[in-house]
Amino acid sequence: MVSIAALMPFTGMALANEGGSGGEYGYKQHEWGAEHFEKHFNKIVEKLGLTDAQQTQAKAIFEANKPLVKPLKERLHAEKKTLHEVMHGDKFDEAAIRAQSAKVAAVYADLNVNKAKVCADFRAILTPAQVTTLKAWYEEHMKKCKEHKEHKEYKY
C-alpha cells in the first residue's frame, strides 16, 4: 500500500479534480498512469536523480502502458456520457442511475489498478534512497493538498 501511495503525486492528482468543470458533460480530461509521469518526467528525473539507465527503463514502462490506458479512457468517457444522459433524462430512474454509476466506478477501478501497476513498476527501478526521496516528496504534496482542501469551499 505504501508503494502505491508514494507515487500518488504523479499519478493521483488528476482524480482530485474529477467532476469539475470543463470538457463535454462537465468532465475534465485527465491523465492516467504513464501520461502523468511523462508530463512531469523532467521534474521526476531532477528530484530523484535518475540515472540514464533508469530514465530509459522508466520511458519503456510509460510507453508500454499507453495502449492499455487509451481504451480505458475511451470507455470511461462513454460511460460518463451515458450516466449524464440517465441523470438528466425525462424520468428519474434511481435504479438506472445506480447501475450506470457502478459501470463508471468499474472503469475507475480498472484505471486505478493500471495506475498502481505503473507505480509499482516505476518504484522497482528506484534505489532505496530514491524511494525515500519519493516518499518525502509525496508527504510534502499531501500536506499541501490537505492545506488547500481546508481552505477551499465546496459548491454544489
Count of helical stretches? 8
Q: What profile does the largest beta sheet have?
A: none
Rg (CA only):
18 Å
Question: Uncertain spans, ≥5 residues at pLDDT below 50?
Answer: 1-28
Determine the structural class based on helices, strands and strand pairing.
Answer: mainly alpha
Helix content: over 70%
**Tertiary shape:** elongated
> What is the element string, with H for helices and E for strands?
HHHHHHHH
Percentage of residues in DSSP E strands: under 5%
- Number of self-contained structural domains: 1
For the termini, the CA-CA separation is: 32 Å
Q: Overall mean pLDDT score?
A: 80
Number of strands: 0
What does this protein structure show overall?
- By secondary structure, the protein is mainly α.
- It has one domain.
- α6 runs antiparallel to α7.
- It is elongated, with a radius of gyration of 18 Å.
Question: Which features does this protein show?
Answer:
156 residues, 8 helices, mainly alpha, disordered N terminus
Quick recap of the structure?
Helix content is 76%, strand content 0%. It is mostly helical and 156 residues long. The longest helix has 36 residues, at 52-87.
Question: Could you outline the blueprint of secondary structure elements for this entry?
Answer:
Layout: H1 2-6, H2 8-11, H3 13-16, H4 34-39, H5 41-48, H6 52-87, H7 94-124, H8 128-151
Helix pairs in contact: 6-7
